[in-house]
TrEMBL record:
<protein>
    <submittedName>
        <fullName>DUF2334 domain-containing protein</fullName>
    </submittedName>
</protein>
<dbReference type="GO" id="GO:0005975">
    <property type="term" value="P:carbohydrate metabolic process"/>
</dbReference>
<dbReference type="InterPro" id="IPR011330">
    <property type="entry name" value="Glyco_hydro/deAcase_b/a-brl"/>
</dbReference>
<dbReference type="InterPro" id="IPR018763">
    <property type="entry name" value="DUF2334"/>
</dbReference>
<dbReference type="Pfam" id="PF10096">
    <property type="entry name" value="DUF2334"/>
</dbReference>
Length: 258
């Protein structure tokens, strides 16, 4: 029997649960495997997306790891949607004003596309897409910037690259015409400090009740989540809380109903 055969009975087809695993690449291969197994057990096999980083922080490279390439292609063949998730996932730029606030407080130096030029953002997006599509043997679903942060250059590059979808903290949209496909905050967790973990656990608890009326609910998990049992427990509770009302779905379904 499918893990979702009982929990999704009676769900409304117009209410979606969109699950995703971030920072997918060889650097976190074991953590990604654990998260994929966990989400499959909760919501059904391959009912989630993966956000792939070609060269995380300039370290381990997807292009140099045939074993991980095989695993990534297998997930794609099972139906997992693959998004381009930057190139380095590291922000090496100097920021000022509002961008400085975002770079310091909304991420730990990982807003790679917050201050890139249009040309550089286009190059990284295009090269990331080419590499990932060569590995998985099919088109990518779209692009999602590291830490969900986009500068003006990145937003222009999204249109240049003709990605079908993009996502930030509060929406999923179609870059070509800026049509909004889904609204609402992403439920996610923070593992890098005690206070941030506590804050993310608190928000997830509120979201399990406060977001039930939303037609589309997004839940995102990261490799660091596996380091804290409190986060894993919260992930399980949060996914299960939405299963009676929301169907685990593909991001592509947003385009079909736009």
């Amino acid at each position: 029997m499918s893990p979702t055969s009982n929990t999704v009975a009676g769900t409304r087809p117009d209410k979606r649960l969109l699950l995703s695993i971030h920072d997918v690449g060889p650097r976190f291969s074991d953590e990604i495997e654990r998260l994929a197994d966990r989400l499959s057990a909760l919501a059904g096999e391959a009912r989630f997306a993966m956000l792939v980083v070609p060269e995380h922080w300039g370290g381990t490279r997807l292009a140099d790891d045939p074993a991980f390439q095989v695993r990534l292609r297998r997930w794609a063949e099972q139906g997992v949607e693959m998004f381009v998730h930057g190139w380095f996932h590291k922000d090496a730029a100097q920021h000022s004003g509002a961008d400085a606030f975002k770079a310091q407080f909304m991420t730990a130096g990982e807003g790679e596309f917050l201050n890139l030029s249009r040309e550089e953002a286009t190059r990284r997006m295009a090269e990331g897409r080419a590499l990932i599509e060569d590995v998985i043997g099919r088109p990518c679903a779209g692009f999602i910037a590291p830490a969900w942060l986009y500068g003006d250059g990145a937003r222009q590059a999204l249109r240049d690259c003709d990605f079908a979808m993009a996502e930030d903290h509060f929406r999923v949209w179609r870059p070509q015409d800026d049509a909004v496909l889904a609204r609402g905050p992403v439920i996610t967790w923070a593992s890098r400090s005690g206070p941030r973990t506590a804050s993310s656990l608190f928000f997830a608890g509120l979201a399990r009740f406060g977001l039930r009326a939303m037609p589309n609910v997004r839940i995102a998990v990261h490799p660091g989540d596996v380091t804290k049992q409190s986060i894993l427990t919260s992930i399980d509770r949060t996914v299960r809380a939405f299963l009676p009302s929301h169907v685990p779905s593909r991001y592509a379904s947003l385009l079909a109903s736009a």
